[in-house]
Amino acid sequence: MSAILVFDDDGNERQELVEDIQSLCGSGAKIIPFDSSDKLGTGASFEPHIASWIDQQCAAEIALIVCDKELGRYKNLPGLSATPISAVAMRKGLPFCQYSRHPGDDDKEIARFQGLRQWSSEEITLKGSGPKEWATQAAALFQGFELIKSAYAKLGDKGRTPAAALAAILEHPESESRIALYGSGDQGFLSEILSFYDPDQPNSPKELLQRMPRILGNWLFLSILRFPGILVNETAAASYLNIDHKDFAESEVREHFKDASYAGPFANLGPWWWRAELDSMIGEAECKDGREYIEKKGITVSECKDAITNERAGYYCMLTQKPVSAENSRGGVSWFPSGADLARIQKDKFEQITALVGMY
Questions:
Q1: Which of 25, 97, 195, 279 has the greatest CB tally within 10 Å of its CB?
Q2: Quick check: helix, strand or coil at residue 261?
C-alpha cells in the first residue's frame, strides 16, 4: 500500500493532521508520522540521517512526503527544517509538499512575485493555517501523484518524452506540443531526470518509473495548472470568455461550460477548464466570445473588464490574480513558461516590483 510520510514537530498537530489525511484517503493510503527517537550521530548531517530512517522504515511505500517548514521542536533533532527533507525527497524521486503554521506575508504581491520567479524550482506549498486545510490538499496531491504513477506505468511508447507522457496521462494527446512549450527555455522540472531518461527505453531503468510521477506531477501542478495557457483557472476562464467573474461563478452559467472542465490529476484543487475545448464550443456555436455564447442560452451576463482601464480584460494577472487587459499588462515575461500566453502582469505592478528588486 502506498504511504504518506508526515513531518511535524508538534505532537498534537501531527496527530490531527495524520488522522485528517487518513480520514480523507481511507483505505487507499497508510499515513506514517516521522519518528524522531533516533539522535543525530556526532558529526552527522540531517540528509543522510533522514534518508537512512526512510530506507529502514518505509522507503518502498512512500508516495508523498508532507512536511512542516519549521521543525525546530523535534527533541532529538534540534535545528531540523524542511530543507534537508526536501533534498532527500529530490534525491529519492519522492513527491514532496510543505506547509507553514505561520504563512505570514505569503499572499502579498511581492511574495507572489518571488514565488513566480522561482516557479521551476519551487516546492509545492499547501495553503491555509491548520491541519484540516493542509490535509484536504495533501490528500488531493497524493491521489493526483498516484494517478500519474499508475497511468505512466501503462504508457509504453506513448510516453517517449515527458511532454508526450503528460499529454497521454491527461488524455489530451493533441496538447503535446503546447505542453512541451511549458518546458522550453527552463528545464528546471525536467533536469532531474536527465541522468535516468533514455528516449529509446522510456520506462527503464526502474528508478525512472519511481521518479517520473514527481517530475510530471510538479510540472503539471506548479507550471501548467498555475500559469494560464493550456488550462485556465476560474478567474482566467472568466476573463478569457469575457464573462464577469461574479457571473461566471454562478452554477447556471458554469453548467454550460462543463464539457470543457478539467478532470485530470489534482482536479480537486481546481477548478480548471481546457482552453482549446472552450474555443471549440464557442466556435461551433459561431459566437465571438463566451459572453455571446452564454447569452444565446438565454442568460444575461456582464462583460469581464479590467478594473483600472474599464476595457475588456481577456488575460490574467499573476500578481493580483485578477482579470487584466492586454493594454494594461506586460506579456511575454521571460521567466513565465513559454506556453502561458494568457498569463501577464499588470503594468503598474510590474514596474513597481521590478524597480524594487531591480530585476526584469
A1: 97
A2: strand
Q: Model-level pTM?
A: 0.90
pLDDT in tens, 61-94: 899 999 999 898 888 888 899 999 999 998 898 9
Q: How far is CA 288 from CA 179, 229, 258, 340, in A?
A: 26, 19, 19, 22
Maximum separation of any 2 CA atoms in the chain, in Å: 73
Burial group, residue 157, by CB count within 10 angstroms (0-12, 13-18, 19+): exposed
Distance CA 297, CA 198 (A): 51
- Per the listing, cell 531591480 goes with 358
Amino acid sitting at position 126: L
Measured distance CA(152)–CA(142) in Å, rounded: 15
Burial class, 194, CB count within 10 angstroms (exposed 0-12 / middle 13-18 / buried 19+): exposed
AA letter at 174: E
Beginning with the edge strand found earlier in the chain, give each strand of the sheet holding 62-68 in spatial order.
Answer: 30-33, 3-7, 62-68, 96-99, 124-125
pLDDT tens figures, 220-245: 999 999 999 999 999 999 999 999 99
Concatenating the DSSP letter of every residue in 91-116 gives: HHT--EEEE-S--TTTTSHHHHHHHH
Q: Is the dihedral of CA 144, 146, 149, 155 positive or negative?
A: negative
